[in-house]
Design goal:
Structural class: alpha/beta
Radius of gyration: 25 Å
Strand order of the largest sheet: 1-8-7-3-4-5-6-2
Shape: globular
Bound molecules: phosphoenolpyruvate, magnesium ion
Largest sheet: 8 strands, mixed
Number of strands: 16
Amino acid sequence: MRNEGEQSFRGLGVSGGIAIGPAYVIDQTGLLVPEYVVPAAQVEKELKRFHVALAKTQRQLSQLKHKAQTLPAGAEDIVLLLEAYKGMLSGSRLVRGVEEQIEKNRINAPAAIQRQITALKASFAAMDDPYLAARATDVGEVGQRLIRNLMRQQYNPFAEAPEGSVIIAEEITPADAALMNPERVTGFATVLGGAEGHAAIMARALGLPAATGIAGLVEGIQTGDLLIVDGGSGEVIVRPKEAALQHYRQELAEQKRETKRLKSLRNVPAVTSDGTPITLQANLELPREAEAAVDAGAAGIGLLRTEFMFMNRPDLPDEEEQFESLRKLVQDLDGRPATIRTLDVGGEKLATALGEEAESANPALGLRAIRLGLKEPKLLDAQLAAMLRAAAYGPLRILIPMVSSVAQMKQVRERLVQAERRLQRRGVKLPSALPPLGAMIEIPGAALAADALAKVCDFFAIGSNDLTQYTLAIDRGDDQVADLYDPFHPAVLRLIQFTIAAAWRANIPVSLCGEMAGDPQAAALLLGLGLREFSMAPLRLPAVKNAITQTAIPQAVAFAEKVMSMTDEAEIKGLLQKGPQQQVEKRKRG
Ligand code: PEP
Ligand code: MG
């Protein structure tokens, strides 16, 4: 039954700002499934692929069930249904039937599921029982979910969304978020997802207000319903009454005025109040965003997440294609430096064409980033070659993600040298010297070994997002533990402090490119710890610059000392909110 009155939901605010517009609810069913015969030698692999999708589907259903349990009374049916769905995925006719199709008939997994759904539906229908007829729909729903997880179907779910829409979905993957066009979409809200997942990062990069982790959202909203999403508080108001609309329209107008004010800082130099120049660079997901970054006043690109060039396509970009887009990026930057990171797939970021290569039971700890690169060197070599060639057209640095050991950096450097030799033999244009090679410091072990890594790295880039995730054992994309995710936890701050100090000792540059770099409240603390290079979503640049120009280095050092002496996370946050000015005033009075 259609709900008519105003209704409000609350989740996590993951990307600030107000979005007002009609809902566009994403329907994730109805995929086209190709069928083919799997070669005999590939049957085992196909079975494994099916089992990985099975486990993933079970995890999703558990998460959805957990969410549904937090709904007010009356939602028990949803919980029971999800429980029944989960039951269909273990030891069931559905699972056995699919396994049989793959093993005996050598049918590819998605088509095997499709066949089994059809067979089960037919047998339920033949029993002429209303209860079983309903189960037929359920089998279809579960099967579609399985197929979706197997195929990661190429389609742009937002292509049909009318201009100004607010997207509502169960989940938005980083690859989905990369397809959102901020000129058409005004914001989004989802049932699943945490604040530091890459979909949330993309939302902030695109300036799209977003809220995640909202139970009951998809059931409570229909396409066309008017919505307000407050990406700061995480509130979503459906079919708002006039009072709420007026309030949020005013906020929206205020937000636009503030954005305009901050934009006027574009040409103000990033210098502390006592004259220390600070490098403020931009994080990019796609090379084509470079112009917007320069427009926002970025001194260069501190992080290009190249994995987004691999998403939403059925094939892999080859060396030539990668070279062309990097060369264009470097040229568009007109002498400003670009730091290009090698592929960081695995974890929550998946590239369709890599299939199950990057799948593991525990993805965040599995074959992610440089681990995959060194295991599948063809991919890494093509990237290194493309980067080397692009470095002939402007300043470029190569950054390696998820480094945990000195040996990995040595292996990568060796591959870079070999790539250069191959390119020399091909006679292509190359830079006069190898570009600087650096490591992301985003695993606690790497931070603790920063002194040793500094000997084999030309620079460091601290990834505070993963450093927080791995130090505190908090899945950065999981809304259920999002309240425990805290980059200002003393343990994370100590690792950042140690890494910056190790870089200074070794005399190599160090930047920070996690979301913390874009938080104006973190600026004085990071300056005080010795950081001089920040890289962030372009939209964050003006606010951080504003904070930097109001801070003097000795004041920042005193502030950082005070923060580092604290052990209570809430107190640290309180102090960061007050800022260094307050701190110095107190000292003067005392
Ligand atoms: C990080 O981990 O802080 C980082 C910048 O890398 P990503 O967010 O792409 O994992
Ligand atoms: Mg990272």
